[in-house]
Amino acid sequence: MKDRLVTLIGGGGFVGRYVAQELYRAGARVRIAQRRPRDAWFLKPLGGLGQTQFVAADVTRPETVARAVDGADHVVNLVGILSGNFRGVHVDGARNVAEAARQAGVESLVHFSALGADPASDSAYARTKAEGEAAVREAFPQATVLRPSTLFGREDQFVNRFAGMIAALPVVPVLRPQAKFQPAYVADVAAAAVAALADPKAHGGKTYALGGPDVLTMAALYRWIGEAIGRKPAFAELPDALGALVASFGALPGAPITRDQWRMLGHDNVVPAGAEGFGAFGLTPTPLAAVAPDWLVRFRRHGRFAGLRQPA
Question: Which parts of the chain register pLDDT below 50?
Fold first, then answer.
């Protein structure tokens, strides 16, 4: 990947910053393309002099995507949303990226989808993610599709969000307590993405399900976070009838969950049996307990001075 130009569509987001850093280490040149490039300027000092470029692009506007991929050797589409115009971003936007990549003659395209993508899902998120995969395949058949599970990392809005609730509340409500997750470390997913870019002969046209080494229920995840930050609130596992009522207010500002997210929680987010994953890239996924305590320490009552205690 040395000196190759890689366009990261949505490169300033949570996953994109890790993909960019992996590319910096490989010696690639990185072009960050997103609607507000200044939101990604924090990446510039992470690379070498002249290693990072910035360009304005919106996946719903094909002409801006075409400019973003012009001259690129490789492209990664990282754009996804949790609410809003799912079809416009996940389907039409993904198609725009794939068509622009094909017309630009890039060597490889990696498209980020999601574990649980399903054209028959009752969740608009999961359904449009699957439809987006089909649109990408039609426009760029040799694209590599990555389906990561829920991701954790220092800047995530998953583990950190729950930790903030556990640190602040004496009683913490748990929605869908038996829902299963197989969370993956964002740095591992970034490494898989760059490996796929670098070897399109091996990975082009394939779909990979990327889940971590541990399968946890929602209730078990809350308890683990509580132990990791030294907090012992009461956990109130809400029955589905009450959880559905909470989700019905999902359109209101500050709501803890949307209706579509509630539907997503009705399906386990785990790697299907027999699916190819991290092993195809020679990667061993990182357990949550191996890295999360390093940043979760800020949620402890006395921070780093409280001392870290790993759960048994």
Answer: 308-312
